[in-house]
Design brief:
This protein has about 110 residues and is an all-beta fold. Strands 2, 4, 5, 6, 9, 10 and 11 form a seven-stranded mixed beta sheet that branches. The chain has a four-stranded antiparallel beta sheet with strand order 1-3-8-7, with no helix packed on it.
Length: about 110
Amino acid sequence: QVQLVESGGGSVQAGGSLRLSCATSERIFGLNVMGWYRQAPGKQRDLVAFITSRGSTTYADSVKGRFTISRDNALNTVYLQMNSLKPEDTAVYYCYFSDSSVYWGQGTQVTVSS
């Protein structure tokens, strides 16, 4: 079973930047998707961005132009560069990996203060 290990969360002031990383526990092959969801207190978990094994990306409208998702297939790692952070970006961010199954990371807290 694939395990995901996240890092890079923390606290930052509005306008600042953070970079999240998520590595899989084993080498992955074939068509797959890696990405990020986030969940704010009292709200549902929402998609932030994802990237396919071929490099195609998709972003939520709320983060377009501010966040960039990328992946390093040799390191089995996906990244989320978050710039121009806003207080409404505050949430627990969850990494996921999907091929024939879906696997989730443990979540990492991102807090943006005004």
